[in-house]
Amino acid sequence: MSAPEGALPTSVARLIEELSKLPGIGPKTASRLTFYLLRAPDEQVNALAEAVRALKLGLVECERCCHIAESSPCAICRDEGREQSVVCVVEDPLDVVAIERTGAYRGLYHVLHGAISPVEGILPQDLRIAQLIARLDREPIREVILATNPSLEGETTATYIVRQIGDRPIRVTRLARGLPMGGDLEYADEMTLIRALEGRSEVQ
Q1: Average pLDDT of adjacent 10-residue blocks, the chain of 204 residues
Q2: Where are the domains positioned within the chain?
Q3: CB-CB neighbours of 5 under 10 Å
Q4: pLDDT at residue 202, as a whole number
Q5: What is the predicted pLDDT for the residue at 22?
Q6: Which of 54, 175, 190, 200 could form a disulfide with 58 if both were Cys (CB 3.0 to 4.6 A apart)?
């Protein structure tokens, strides 16, 4: 429940409102964060404001894999030591971080920036699926690992991608089911992800 009009200065009420729009942050948490920042030293608040500003101004989307980066192509795509014929398809940039943390995968990535969800108005054309298919026709890729989340949306997205790949001579695999249904890749521990990578299976 929001504060009555006039009960808070406009700037305070506005920050609470904006913070409340962030995932996982309700009005109470937004209020606590706002009043914490009010009491914090100026240099801490300025550093936070600058970091938020740089987030949008200092990042680009990699032209090859669609991962977020400071320059394009990104560091992973520029790494010639990585396996250039294997691409792991994930929903979000945080999934790349989760898999990289395992140290078990040395191929490339493709970031979709979401999953198909008609209920939320997210359709295939809203994702980076067309860019993925273009890569398959352009690059010597032999295997696509579908690492979308084990959720209804993730499964729908994986099925759609399989149909788009069609009869191209590419091995399509799916992460093993060590991942819980309905869970998010970014929250999985390293050993679960390693087993899922090692136990991936062919997509029929």
Answers
A1: 67 94 93 96 95 85 96 96 97 95 95 96 97 97 94 93 97 77 68 71 69
A2: 10-55, 82-202
A3: 8
A4: 75
A5: 93
A6: 54
pLDDT digits (tens, 9 = 90+) for 126-166: 999 999 999 999 999 999 999 998 888 999 999 999 999 99
Domain 10-55 has CATH 3.40.1010.10: no
Structural Rg of the chain based on CA atoms? 20
Nearest to 147 by CA among 88, 201, 105: 88
Q: Establish how many alpha carbons lie within 13 A of residue 125's alpha carbon, considering only the half-sphere containing its beta carbon.
A: 1
Domain range 82-202, its CATH number among 3.30.70.360, 3.40.50.2000, 3.30.930.10, 3.40.1360.10: 3.40.1360.10
Q: Nearest 10 degrees: CA dihedral of 152, 172, 164, 141?
A: 130
